[in-house]
Amino acid sequence: MKVPFKMPKTMRPSFPGRTVDIRDYKAVGDGVTANTRAFADAVAACAKAGGGRVLVPPGIWLTGAIHLKSNIDLHIREGAELRFSDKFSDYLPVVFTRWEGLECYNYSPLIYAKDCTNIAITGTGRLNGQGQLWWKWKAIQKHGAVRLYNMACKGVAVTKRVLGTEKDALRPSFIEAVNCRNVLIEGITIGSGPMWTIHPVYCDNVLIRRVKVNTRGVNNDGLVIDSTRNVLVEHCYFDTGDDCIVLKSGLNEDGWRVGRPTEKVIIRYCTTKEGHGGVTVGSEMSGDIRDILVHDCEFNGTSNGIRVKSMRGRGGVVENLYVQDIKMGRIRRAALTLSTFYGQSTLKPSTKTPPVLRNIHIKNISCKYASRAVKVIGLPEKPIENVTLENVSIVSRWGLECINAKDTKLIGIKISPIKEPVMFVRNGQNVTIQKAACLERVDAFLRIEGRRTKNIRLSGNNFSKAKRDIVLGKSVQPDTIKKCSRK
Questions:
Q1: Pairing relationship of beta strands 102-106 and 95-99 according to DSSP bridges
Q2: Per-state percent for the chain, helix, strand, coil, to nearest 5
Q3: Residue 222 has pLDDT above 70, yes or no
Q4: Percent of the chain with pLDDT over 90
Q5: What is the C-alpha separation between 364 and 3, in angstroms, rounded?
Q6: What tens digit of pLDDT does each residue of 352-381 get?
Q7: Dihedral pair phi/psi, residue 37, rounded to 5°
Q8: Tens-place pLDDT, residues 119-165
Q9: pLDDT at 265 over 70
Q10: Which of 124, 123, 92 minimizes the C-alpha distance to 110?
């Protein structure tokens, strides 16, 4: 399909034909022998020779952190498993990273690359993070997270934000590339990481294809695209303990300081099972997120389908988000959510700077069942702007709610809720409802409330199965409703 924004073609990195076998550097695939040094020596030798493939043959290869270099393709063959050590000390010394949107020095990710060009992780083998011991840190991480956030708010230099202790308890990502160009992750199956699974940060030209993420651990987001540009994600499968695919760009003051957006991202032909969200934006979006296209994906079993979440204190802008041709099975919460009332952040913001959500276009969505069909909820002081929902068909317990939004277009909406009304608008401004249909017999189709509500335009709708098509709250003036001719 046509991409609605300018974006260069995502290119695969190329590598010399050279192959370096880890067994030539004393690696032993018995699942017991520690191979951290063997991996480091193989990567170094391959890089020194000009780059190529570092081969992981069939076997179980126990290792600590693996650090990639430019022009290295870490190739994991069918029948090979990288099994990562569960000793925390195997991920020291600390490295530069970004932890939940805050720059710092912390435990090394299990596979890590920084300032590299042309890197890849390929093959059809498996990566096992053995993350269970790390997951226990979720209960005690608040100390380290607050300490880090306070340093960021006080302007402490990043080089002095050194953590990497069990007391701070900030878990690393599984795979993290920082400030890299031309990144490929293809074919592998990943499970049981400490925290986020695949995490490109400050990268350019990233291609992720045919990857399977099966990990139900605490905060095991599948793919976190973080202040990264020119990304293509396709034909991937996610079954996760948090968001399946999520876009972020830094947290609050530190996100504003860095000022690097996530932009020009295409996500297509992906499927999800368990997870908090199929595709999520935020909540860390302070460096801006823009020019995103999600199409031809299937979600079944996630808590949310498409979700944009933010809160006071984030600042930043989410804009030019395009979503279309999405099929959903059973969604436990909301099929579609655009909200700036997110309330589950690890850290309490130090300001009330509102985020901006605008220019969001969603069409051709079907959902067999969701608890809530659609939530569009902005802040009173900063409404969500210019949202279009078109050809959306959802069976749900509750219908559509639109609160503190302006310039909203609801076209061809077909929602069958158990609880009425079908649509609820509060403090909406310039809301167009066109070609909507009431599929089941209900008492009320549209309820309108809020003294700031104005200019609700109705056109070509079919409310014939509703006893009452419109119910007005006490503070809503009758001339708020503008009934237009069918177009």
A1: antiparallel
A2: 10, 50, 35
A3: yes
A4: 91
A5: 16
A6: 999 999 999 999 999 999 999 999 999 999
A7: -65, -40
A8: 999 999 999 999 999 999 999 999 999 999 999 999 999 999 999 99
A9: yes
A10: 92
Q: Which tokens belong to 212? A: 């399977």
The whole-angstrom separation of Cα 97 and Cα 442 is 53
Any bridge partners for residue 79, and if so which?
A: none
Q: How big is the chain, counted in residues?
A: 487
- Domains in the chain (CATH in brackets) are 19-385 (2.160.20.10)
Asked whether the beta carbons of 233 and 267 are under 8 A apart, the reply is yes
* pLDDT tier, 487 (very low <50, low <70, confident <90, very high otherwise): very low
Q: Which amino acid is at 331?
A: I
SS3 at position 202: coil
Residue type, 72: I
Residue showing tokens 């968001």: 243
Rounded distance, CA 385 to CA 378, Å? Answer: 9
- Helix or strand (DSSP H, E) at 135: helix 132-135
Residue 172 in 3-state DSSP? coil
Tokens representing 193? 């990481």
Structure token pair of residue 434: 């066109």
Do you find a cis peptide bond into 200, omega within 30 degrees of 0? Answer: no
Rounded Cα–Cα distance for residues 75 and 19 (Å) = 10
